[in-house]
Amino acid sequence: MFGLMQDRPLLIASLIEHAATFHPETEIVSRLPEGAVHRTNWLGVRQRAKQVANAMAALGVQPGDRVGTLAWNSYRHLALYYGVSGSGAVLHTVNPRLFPEQIDYIVNHAEDKVLFFDITFAELVEKLAPLLKSVKTFVAMTDRAHMPAIQVPNLLCFEELLDAQSTDYTWPELDERTASSLCYTSGTTGNPKGVLYSHRSTVLHTLMELAPDTFGISSGETLLLVVPMFHANAWGTPYAAAMVGAKLVMPGPHLDGKSIYTLMRDEKVTFSQGVPTVWLMLFQYLDANPDVRPRELGVKRIGIGGAAVSRAMLERFENDFGAEVVQGWGMTETSPIGVISKLLPKHAALAGDELLKIKLKQGRGVWGVDLKIVDENGQALPWDGKAFGHLHVRGPWITSGYYKSEGGAVLDAEGFFPTGDVATIDPDGYLQLVDRAKDVIKSGGEWISSIDVENIAMGHPGVAEAAIIGVAHPKWQERPLLIVVKRPGQEVTRDGMLDYLGSRIAKWWLPDDVVFVDSLPHTATGKLLKTSLRAQFKDYRLPTA
Amino acid sequence: MFGLMQDRPLLIASLIEHAATFHPETEIVSRLPEGAVHRTNWLGVRQRAKQVANAMAALGVQPGDRVGTLAWNSYRHLALYYGVSGSGAVLHTVNPRLFPEQIDYIVNHAEDKVLFFDITFAELVEKLAPLLKSVKTFVAMTDRAHMPAIQVPNLLCFEELLDAQSTDYTWPELDERTASSLCYTSGTTGNPKGVLYSHRSTVLHTLMELAPDTFGISSGETLLLVVPMFHANAWGTPYAAAMVGAKLVMPGPHLDGKSIYTLMRDEKVTFSQGVPTVWLMLFQYLDANPDVRPRELGVKRIGIGGAAVSRAMLERFENDFGAEVVQGWGMTETSPIGVISKLLPKHAALAGDELLKIKLKQGRGVWGVDLKIVDENGQALPWDGKAFGHLHVRGPWITSGYYKSEGGAVLDAEGFFPTGDVATIDPDGYLQLVDRAKDVIKSGGEWISSIDVENIAMGHPGVAEAAIIGVAHPKWQERPLLIVVKRPGQEVTRDGMLDYLGSRIAKWWLPDDVVFVDSLPHTATGKLLKTSLRAQFKDYRLPTA
Fold first, then answer.
1. HSE (CB half, 13 Å, CA atoms) of B446?
2. Is it the case that residue A186 has pLDDT exceeding 80?
3. Residue B433 and residue B455 in contact, taking contact as beta carbons nearer than 8 Å
4. What mean pLDDT do residues B65-94 have?
5. Distances from the Cα of B460 to the Cαs of A419, B375, B456, B482, in angstroms?
6. Nearest CA of chain B to the CA of A195: how many Å?
7. Contacts with A63 from chain B: Cβ below 8 Å
8. Which pLDDT score, from 0 to 100, does residue A295 have?
9. Cα-flanking dihedrals φ and ψ of residue B219, to 5°?
């Protein structure tokens, strides 16, 4: 027997409708690529979104067609978030920081029909346009005065395109399972793979973002969205802001410390989300300007994800800003909320290192995300904070596979998605990442975390960068090899390095050898490319072998 | 094209699984009808819920069957919330305060197969048992030592029934539209009508309860659940507490001011929800015990619904408790969140009466509840804070009709549910109730709010209770008649009453006559029974007619 409640689909358009109806005048502030600070409000965003939806029809975009963006965070990108998905098409946010050949691959794989781009990327688009076979129309996200002088076929001006459209539009009542957006993961192995979100998964994830146990987003907030809108839907915050009608501030391409600080101050930001790299740039600005008093900003919370938060970063936000750090772990495949680091009432009595130890874990589970860690045979491991296992996750905003079945069937027998991460989970459900599964070193049946050893090696004053990889060993299967880039002007030797590590890690974790190189390989987005290192040292013979 | 996110149904069992997995040791405290304070935790509640689910099978309860409860708030009722709904049966919470003949009607209409009851209601059940044809098993919610000595066929003891069941149980993967619980409205007209909730509607409503713009429920909370679990799923809080793993405190039948105060103090309650009547009992206790300092309780928020909050109540919670009042409007048919009274950033500059005026409105819209006010012809009225209209609502946790099609098709052409309330909505989306539609007085095409005039009349020192009804008038269609119960020992005349009102309300709202009576008719739950008054004064001839 079914209940008798109203059968209303969960649709992204309902978010912008709510914001425009109940919070019409709440400001949406953008620093544009053109430089100026632009102001509109939720009513204005809905109007633009409806014009985008009408433009979709005018450009021949059918329901289910993909529409690409190469764009920073701005009200224009926000109008595309609502207008493209709301109309039944699929918003495909492309990461402009990828290598051009990856962008070429992704746009062709997605078969984007239209490509919207910020003028920052005009030259890139001019170069790629001949390769992007599916793209029928290119739209420069600017006004006529700032149109780039590039040779691209069917090039339109965003503001002109929209101004020509009616502001009347009735959102279609889509099936809530309809695809809404598409984002490719820029993995360190193989081709990028597309994660295809649905209206339902997006709305459910957005609801969870409001919870005080996650980001606690409310109408009282002024949100500075530093995390890019081309990263997993900017962690869902463009949707959450509309669901509660919060003020939204977007920095465009202006991510340097001074620009971010200025926006925080001028717009009275209460909550901001970003990756550690951006916050390091903010700290550099503060270091160079000791007269600036970040506590006066009144920022209440800083959301950090994408990479682990260091103790120094956490303490600086707490002490200098008076802000709470809300760390999280997730990935493109998890929408992205996986776990969120919020304390429990039982932690109220803790202080100092005991408290920090908990705060520096990636976080604990939230409703909607089932977690498990499993061994090589898929057997569940205990939640004792010690056992390492492959992290698998399940829930209504976790992917079931990749676009066009890339990578084949990915779920395990219980329907969980294998994240490729290795983690521990403690008895309170706090997750701590140990390593990427493919980077962990398997030594005689035990696992060694490459990340842990690297982080300690990087603490040596003579080390600029360090990587640990597993190298074949006749007895132990694999043993760790440490690869070091020396800091210019510093001296460090193999034995000095091993002595340094020897006093800080378990004996069996100690690398069997150290080699020095001039540089390490990285992906376009700055991740260490260990596949390349492993290929380079494939035949390396350890002194212990 | 559908998205590729995991197809996970939204099920109530997932809430208790989350709580037991991530917050196993968080306490669940109950004051039982037997008197003692009982302590368990989320792990214990899950265990009991699984035993309930196994008991359902043992008692021959099939998926979709209704299982009734006549019970106060306790861990036993909580175990039924999860165990009955989780197993695929329908939890039917019956309001024990109704007249016995209404309970008879409701249980027979629902065709409950099993009836669980607190020992408080043992005599009532003994009396009703012969009439409850569908009920095959009666279960007294107590242990063997406290079993009531009543003559009821197939009477079982709750703790014995559960102890005999395995604690192993795998929740079925139900369709999320499956009916989960049933609650009858005790209207002032006609027979009670059943609202049939689904797993989906319940989980979506629960997610919205976490939002800071509504009740902001988090794992850091200690929730005192004063609102009965037989009222619209106790406003959803038993589910929200599990979704975040909050500590939950339940008072059983002990709703007097001293008991509530003691629980608040002993359990360090941070948030409590209840109807105004319960808070008035708490205030009476405080009045009688001036040495008690409610500010020392540390209660942060008080949720109030079910009836409008008075200025005095709001100010007392703010000033004496240092607590924020979170008012809401909803009904059984809305799960119940309809609107919630939370301030907007623009109100930060307000103070005094200006601020109070906003706080005393029922609240503003939240995502998931579409609102409109319409005139007699169904035409939408403006949101200007002045126009009165019939309030219609739409959303995934709003009912589409009543159990067994009682009352027929109820939705309007746009799929909105007509609430039977008359309200204004202001430009910020704040709703203010004006009256029940059937009580509003239609005078020459304009509407007069009976509630407004009654509230003012009740301010007269000589008035114990007052009611306004519309009486037929040859020229104006209806004109108001004021019906007054005098306060013992006080004197008040017709002309004195009209003078009092005349200086406080618009001239055309002034009643055309005043009559004095010894008492006014009420429903079992204390609502003024205006249908009965209208029948009594059907042929009353106004002096102006």
1. 10
2. no
3. no
4. 98
5. 69, 33, 7, 13
6. 7
7. 1
8. 95
9. -65, -15
- Interface contact B211-A197, CB threshold 8 A: no
- Please list, in sequence order, all residues whose beta carbon lies within 8 angstroms of the beta carbon of residue A58, skipping any fewer than 6 positions away: A161, A164, A165
Nearest of A224, A215, A239, A233 to residue A279 by alpha carbon: A224
Which tens digits make up the pLDDT trace of B488-506? Answer: 988 899 999 999 999 998 8
Nearest CA in chain A to B399: A5
Q: At A18, list the tokens.
A: 């709510």
Which residue among B200, B212, B345 places its CB closest to the CB of A210? B212
- Does A530 participate in catalysis according to the annotation? no
Q: Is B309 in a helix, a strand, or coil? A: coil
Closest residue, chain A, to B430 (C-alpha): A22
Structure confidence by residue, pLDDT tens digits, A469-524: 999 999 889 999 999 999 998 889 999 999 999 999 888 899 999 999 999 998 87
Q: What is the mean pLDDT of residues A210-222?
A: 98
> Considering only alpha carbons, which residue of chain B is nearest residue A1?
B64
Share of chain B above pLDDT 90, in %: 88
Q: Helix B494-502 crosses helix B450-458 at what angle (to 10 degrees)? A: 110
Chain-chain contact of B397 with A198 (C-beta, under 8 angstroms): no
Q: Which residues pair with B117 in a beta bridge?
A: B70, B140
Question: pTM for the complete prediction?
Answer: 0.93
Whole-angstrom Cα distance, residue A223 to residue A238?
9
Catalytic residue of the set B258, B438, B442, B527? B442
How many beta-carbon contacts under 8 Å exist across A and B?
A: 206
Provide the percentage of residues in chain A whose pLDDT is more than 70.
Answer: 99
Strands B463-473, B37-41: parallel, antiparallel or unpaired by DSSP? unpaired
Q: What is the DSSP string of A96-121?
A: TTS-HHHHHHHHHHHT-SEEEE-GGG
- SS3 string, A269-319, reads CCEEEECHHHHHHHHHHHHHCCCCCHHHHCCCEEEECCCCCCHHHHHHHHH
Marked catalytic residue, from A221, A267, A324, A333? A333
Pairing of strands B363-365, A463-473: unpaired
Please determine, for the modelled complex, whether the ipTM score is greater than 0.85.
yes
The residues facing B91 across adjacent strands are B67, B181
HSE-CB for B124 with a 13 A CA cutoff = 22
Domains and CATH numbers, chain A: 13-197 (3.40.50.12780), 255-437 (3.40.50.12780), 441-536 (3.30.300.30)
- Which residues in chain A are contacts of B401 at CB distance < 8 A? 4
